[in-house]
Amino acid sequence: MKSDRPVVGRGAKVRAAVHAATLAELVDKGYAAFSVDAVAQRAGVHKTTVYRRWKDRESLIVDAVAEHMAMDIPDPDTGTVEADLRALARSLAHSFTTPAGQAILAAMFTGAAHLPEIAEARRHVFHDRLRRAEPVVTRAVARGELPAGTDPAELLKTLAARIYLDLLITGDPVDEALADKAARIALAAAHAGALGHA
Amino acid sequence: MKSDRPVVGRGAKVRAAVHAATLAELVDKGYAAFSVDAVAQRAGVHKTTVYRRWKDRESLIVDAVAEHMAMDIPDPDTGTVEADLRALARSLAHSFTTPAGQAILAAMFTGAAHLPEIAEARRHVFHDRLRRAEPVVTRAVARGELPAGTDPAELLKTLAARIYLDLLITGDPVDEALADKAARIALAAAHAGALGHA
């Protein structure tokens, strides 16, 4: 008998359950005490089901983090680049204040920071978020709000950079005021033509 | 018999020797294998001499790193803010490419990143470097090259942020091209009045 349900159904459900359990374990236990056993138990699947899809705990963490961070990106389209960039910056700043965001930050920048696969994950997650946010800049250039030749990636890096500085180095509050400042700086640099294609 | 040598002489020499040995040990062995014993041996002093001045290995590392990073800051005064900011940005980028810079980076952002005293050291070292570089901006405002009310710390944070982003996240080359870009972005934002006092 043929089922009407899509064949990917069960695989996608297992994947989602394991991802959710991975983040929950990171939040509850932290990176050092993280174990695939506990994830499997929490997700209600057998450990071998996890190892069939992810080769080790690092791959599992990286995959769950990348998926979580990617879903987190809004695609604001308010009609003005100022408001769109503010929304992106606030969403980035906010993403590190949630329990999952805090746990991810701790894993990516302290607990597991020495692992090459985590350095690679930091790059991967960052570029994925960048790519998803680029339409905001592309649309602004098309509307004539930003100089032709403005490089979307360069603008978004400038915006993110100011937020990451306080997050990783100064320890100053990562809040809406910082987000708005980061958006203002990126916009000013773009208007001045300092963020053109190299 | 009175000596003509300043009384701080020996203390300062021991301090300098222990600092140099600390950086050399970090470069050779890395943070995880770092030991006060090895530092004392390398500096040619007794272990108790080290412990009399620094309460533990973390204090010693933080102190040596802070001193090294502080000495590393130039005070460019070329007559134009463009050239001064470029010099500051290039010096910051360059500081992470030396063996000592690489070892410090590894200790501060990976090996010891989970320790509260290292997070505090990151803040301390950053603010110390910021403070030393502020005259570049103050002079530019006085010369009328930058808007009155430009906040030196905000300008320098914008400059540093773009460099730290590639250093800590994207993994893209931290070179003169990046430094010049960071200086250009900070300058454009300042000219646009986006870096004023809050």
UniProtKB/TrEMBL annotation, chains A, B:
Pfam families: TetR_C_11, TetR_N. InterPro entries: Homeodomain-like_sf, HTH-type_TetR-like_transc_reg, HTH_TetR, Tet_transcr_reg_TetR-rel_C_sf, TetR_C. PROSITE patterns: HTH_TETR_2. Coiled coil: none annotated. The keyword Nucleotide-binding does not apply. Residues 12-72 form the HTH tetR-type domain. Keywords: DNA-binding, Transcription, Transcription regulation. The keyword Transferase does not apply. GO terms for molecular function: DNA-binding transcription factor activity; transcription cis-regulatory region binding. Residues 35-54 bind DNA. PANTHER family: HTH-TYPE TRANSCRIPTIONAL REGULATOR RUTR (PTHR30055), TETR-FAMILY TRANSCRIPTIONAL REGULATOR (PTHR30055:SF148). This is Transcriptional regulator, TetR family protein.
